[in-house]
Amino acid sequence: MMNKLPDFIGGRSGLLGLLVFAALLLLVFPAAMNVDQLSLAGRFLAFGFVAAGLVLCWGYGGILSLGQGVFFGLGGYAMAMYMKLEASDGLPDFMRWNRITELPWFWEPFHSLTFTVFAILLLPAALAYLIGIAMFKRRVSGVYFAIITQAIAVITTILIIGQQGFTGGANGITDLRTLKGWDIHTDSAQVTLYYATAVLLIGVILVGKWLLSTKYGRILVAMRDREDRVRFSGYDVANFKVFIFCVAGVFSGIGGAMFTLQEGFMSASFVGIVPSIEFVIFAAVGGRLSLLGAVYGALIVGFAKVMFAEAYPQLWLFLIGSVFIVVVLFMPYGLAGLQENLTRRLRAYLRRTEEHPSSTPSPPRGTTSVGASNRPSQGEPDADGSLSTQEVRS
Amino acid sequence: MTTNTNFLLAVEDLTVSFDGFKAIDGLNFYMDYKELRVVIGPNGAGKTTLLDLICGKTKASAGSIKFKGQELTALPEHRIVWAGVGRKFQTPSIYESLTVRENLEVSYPEGRGVWGALAFKRDRRVLEKIDEVAESTFVKDMLDKEAGLLSHGQKQWLEIGMLLMQDPELLMLDEPVAGMSVKEREQTAELLNTITEGRSVIVIEHDMNFVKRIARKVTVLHQGQILAEGDMDSVQSDKRVIDVYLGH
Amino acid sequence: MGDFTTEELLAIFAMQGFAGLSLFSVLLLMALGLAIIYGQMRVINMAHGEFMVIGAYTTYFISTLVVSQAPWFLDYYVFIAVPAAFLMAFIVGWIVEAVLIRHLYHRPLDTLLATWGLALIMQQAFRSIFGAREVSVRLPSWLQGSYQPTLMIDIPINGIAIMVLTLFVTAGVAWMMYRSRWGLRVRCTVSNREMSGAVGINTRSVDRLTFAVGCGIAGIAGAAFTTISSTGPTSGALYIVDTFLVVVFGGAGSLLGTMASAFSIAQGQSILEFFISGSMAKVLTLLVVIGILMLRPEGLFASKVRR
Lengths: 394, 248, 307
Fold this sequence. Notes:
Chain A is an all-alpha fold. Chain A is built from 15 helices and two strands. By secondary structure, chain C is an all-alpha fold.
């Protein structure tokens, strides 16, 4: 028995969920997939960062952002700028094509990898902070916030495409081959990058779980339930929202950078409305209250898209559209919620058959709801864990 | 205009208008330290609006609200709470998906900034305080239950408990016994009598029997102004008050 | 701007302003439907653009039919196409409400996601039925050509026609909201749903009708849209963000606000477009709108309500 388990793991079932997840990513996938499939999985894991961020700010905080692609793009472009500078002597090719003769000032610092790493983390945080302060201090929330973040995604896309000379325009920043002289396109590099992404992602999920286990995590849920009560309990609600939005932004930025590293390419097509909403699909399908679920969602939807879009490109939009509707209508807590429900029923069933093998069934435990996941256990055997959810309460 | 700093709360010339309609109209209202005050009045008299103004939910159009000499009208809501004002809402306002213990914990007046909340430790001090408050508000047995599963009356108590966690100097309760059974009302009346020790309380209530049980001084609001003030008997025999309640 | 004479500048403003009016018309017609739906039931319809496209394809279908079967009718078909566009979008809206939307009342963020799924399905349906290529309608001869008040100003007739149509529809909506029984019921339900139910208003059918009417108006927007641009499966998606901003900017629930904000967004964009590139004009307009929303989060014309 591990008695010294940190609170935020979420007890035994939480640990189990994490171990399964880690084993899947670090052992099963590498063993079962060829390099191409594995590197594909690595790209979907990069999307998983964004989805995990959305679980925090949307699932727990109730802040739906339809502009997470912007943060993904910030991280991705920062990485791409560094790699592009490394790939070109002096001026990147697309700048020459656009008759720009001198490297723009904001490209200069991206000669340094250290700066780039900081930029990947801090640029999304800074932008999220700006947007957050502007919106949450003015109490813009809910639907309005969603629409405004969507508009910001539109603005960013237009800017990137319009400022071709500085950004590579619609083509994006292409032909990225090396990181500090290391060729990223070889098979071994792709595998290494996959592992790096998986390990980073597990780290990010642990951070998320820890956040949710603190008093901050409970205030986050409290804010989603009753914002006014939190405010009149002496909290500056806006700051709490800004923080989680920043965290989600940073997660997305890391995902973007890892994506660029694996793909060797970054463009505006990962920034706009459509990718931003796709990130939300991942989180919705996997379960908006489950950090691990969101990553599973990214993997499942990602692979489904690849398989379907090859076989029946016509049907893919029908399928994903229906998935969206079905998930929202019938399983608002996604696959994680489904799994949670099944486990609970199974346990209740087992317990019943154990206790009174032939008696009439007691009322299903499903009517009581299990709270937010990652809550420090109070010693009672809690059914929650990594794939935890809350009942819909009308 | 004399601003008396000997009062805990001094509301002066307070006015708020919504599209021209004055919900509170040049109101003057004073509270002593450790006073229990019941505010009554017909629907639309401005009772809830008065509490909204004091706790900062609604911004005043004119006038001042001084709490221990500090002007509240300029403060954001959470600062008003920090100053020592607690407010219970009319419909129980608790966090349904957190447990009762977590509900109380969130109200503990430490770790109120983002970083503070991240570093917050649930230590003995906190747990003891939670137990103490849960005991006095009759929710001790429910600590590990999810708050959404409580009965209506228990939710009301829990919200009062959440306020007690903050140890406010001024506690404002908006219809604390609404939706409660007779027995629950009696328990609540007792609870009110104990929590008044050491702090001031404003209670808005419609239930006259309940008011009689707890009231020492009563303020009657009507059309955003004070109609009468005094002990229960004198207010009840006031002709204007009777007119207002029985119609003209 | 130094390269232009005052006279030229005025002409530019007049023409760009008029081009803006066409955009204004489409935005306003779109936003009207969206605002009615949001105001009535707090449903964010991300598929609203696709309802516009239904109207556009309906118009296209009728125009092709007329061109091939009854060329003599070409001058008049628009008078059938506009009601038909309304009707088609209305019917689809009715069905969508019955099947999907009614499960999502009071979950605004979820309606946003579910209707996005719907939008994807509708886009693919358009692509399957009408093909991925953009199509254009054949305009009646009297809608072609332009009106030239001075030598430098050149105003296309179809723009004027859209304006007239928009005015009619807006007046119609205003009449319905403030003069008809339906409008009374809608306003009742908006201000107090439970009470309306209690006094015998069937809020369910009010909801369904409102949603369908909102979609129908988007259909009319689609009919108008065909006269200024060609239609593709994703044409609607291009307008949805702008339309939402129009609604939010105007203060949801205010007819006057919606008009004012559609006008200022369309005009701002159109006039800026002449001086900077179209994309930058859009960026600038959106940024200004977001900036103003920060100062007035409740929109331009939101009323203060005592809660």
